[in-house]
Design a protein that fits this description.
Elements lengths: L4 E10 L2 E11 L4 E6 L5 H8 L7 E6 L2 E2 L4 H6 L1 E4 L11 H11 L4 H14 L15 H13 L5 E5 L7 H16 L3 E5 L3 H7 L2 E6 L2 E6 L1 H7 L7 H10 L3 H4 L6 H10 L2
Parallel strand pairs: 3-8, 3-9, 6-7, 7-8
Antiparallel strand pairs: 1-2, 1-4, 4-5, 9-10
Bound molecules: adenosine-5'-triphosphate.
Adenosine-5'-triphosphate binds next to strand 2 and helix 1.
């Protein structure tokens, strides 16, 4: 099956600063991929290139087979995006915001109502969806933005830090919903600092450090590559992050399971 998301030798600088370097990665339908990395590793830059907010300087990003730069409209129609800072219009209610989004995707009022009712139920918005967005807490905003991102039945959902600012009940709701949609074929690309959440819901993780993707694979594969380490993802992650100069030792991410295994055995 063809990949639904492809990063092909993607690179991006800010001035002299290399933010993302030679990123190669393929994601498939029905897969939840979590990108981990310290502050400044390049996760948000990667996400912004994936959703078309930043142009890669090197390589290409394809979504649903469409190049996000060359065929932005087609690529974006396949995508839903939840940014780390939820952005809503203060003077609209949540429902009006969702109606605006539905209109942007070309749905008529009747179709929009069906879709909005579905999302209101799915994300538990009923008690506040008719209030002005300016009165919402961070978690209410985040849930409304999730609803907006899912409204047009995207094939790929891109989420930057999905759990930040949510209460435990909302975190459970989002985790369960993501897994349910992934089981129906949605591809989710999320960045997170919440290792426990990544371990719980991700099919594969990627670990990024200083602009490079050091590892891609399952948490079990990461454990097998480091049999001498404690089995928690936190311990493995911190080991990977603190390994001296590992970015120059490991080959590209596609081969990194083996590379990390060798790295772990080396003196
Ligand atoms: N607009 C910008 N101008 C200049 N440098 C930037 C800009 N945005 C990001 N950078 C730099 O690019 C690098 C990657 O940043 P990015 O925001 O992608 O990291 P991140 O992994 O998302 O970090 P965090 O976990 O803190 O959100 C960092 O060194 C950062 O300082």
């Amino acid at each position: 099956m063809a990949a639904i998301v492809e990063f092909k030798a993607v690179g991006r600088n800010y001035g002299a600063k290399r933010a993302v370097d030679d990123l190669n990665l393929e994601l498939r339908t029905g897969e939840l991929f979590a990108l981990l990395g310290h502050n400044g590793a390049g996760k948000t830059t990667t996400i912004k290139m994936l959703v078309g907010l930043l142009r890669p300087q090197d390589g290409a990003v394809l979504v649903g087979g469409y190049d996000i730069v060359e065929a932005t409209r087609e690529a974006v129609s396949v995508l839903g995006y939840v940014p780390d800072q939820p952005y809503l219009y203060d003077k609209l209610s949540g429902r009006e915001f969702l109606e605006f989004i539905a209109g942007m995707y070309g749905y008529d009022a009747r179709q929009a109502k069906v879709l909005i009712d579905r999302e209101v139920g799915r994300f538990g918005l009923a008690s506040f969806v008719d209030d002005l967005c300016e009165s919402y807490s961070h978690g209410m905003k985040q849930r409304t933005v999730f609803a907006a991102a899912m409204l047009h039945n995207p094939q790929v959902l891109v989420v930057d830090e999905p759990m930040v600012g949510l209460d435990p009940q909302s975190i459970r709701l989002v985790k369960d919903l993501l897994r349910e949609e992934v089981s129906k074929g949605l591809c989710v690309f999320m960045s997170t600092h919440t290792l426990a959440a990544a371990e719980e819901i991700a099919d594969r993780i990627g670990v990024m450090r200083q602009s490079k993707l050091l590892f891609t694979g399952t948490v079990d594969e990461l454990r097998q590559a480091h049999p001498d380490r404690q089995p928690s993802l936190e311990s493995l992650y911190l080991h990977l992050m603190n390994t001296e100069d590992s970015s120059s030792e490991v080959p590209p991410a596609g081969d990194s399971h083996a590379a990390l295994g060798e790295d772990a055995k080396s003196p």
